[in-house]
Design a protein that fits this description.
The protein is mainly alpha-helical. It is about 45% helix and about 0% strand.
């Protein structure tokens, strides 16, 4: 019996009867992963070049003997660090009064913005999917009742 969606292609030596592998699906997933990596590299390259242009301009002005004035309007985007931790309690970081030493997180909290009013799910999957999609779990319609599964 061929796996669903792989008509005409024999499975590639599955380790168990439940783990069927379809070459077409593997190729599609590889292409998507490659595209994702290409997008990340392109974004990193474009972001990197924006900061270098400002530094080069300042260096050229300094070499010419001109005074470099700090710009009042910054064109660069802010630096954001988003930390998504799994199974971390409120008092598991140093700046919340924990005995656990977290000097780097303490420094980030002291110099940056702390988001103290948040809500998470009891398991990590809903929180991660809400962050990635920007939608509440109820809007994603991923959970179906047992009656609809046949």
């Amino acid at each position: 019996m061929a796996p669903r969606g792989c008509a005409g292609h024999p499975p590639l030596l599955p380790p168990s009867p439940q783990a069927w592998v379809c070459p077409g699906k593997m190729l599609a997933m590889g292409a998507l992963a490659g595209f994702w990596v290409l997008c990340l590299l392109t974004y990193g390259y474009l972001s990197w070049s924006q900061g270098l242009e400002e530094e080069e301009e300042g260096a050229l002005l300094a070499q010419a003997g001109e005074r470099v004035e700090p710009s009042t309007t910054s064109t660069s985007q802010p630096h954001l660090i988003f930390i998504l931790a799994d199974d971390q309690g409120f008092r598991d970081v140093g700046y919340h009064g924990s005995e656990i030493k977290t000097p780097t997180l303490d420094k980030l909290a002291a110099e940056g913005v702390k988001l103290e009013n948040y809500y998470v799910q009891p398991i990590c999957t809903p929180s991660r999917s809400q962050f990635i999609t920007g939608k509440w779990l109820t809007e994603q319609q991923r959970i179906k009742s047992l009656k609809s599964i046949k």
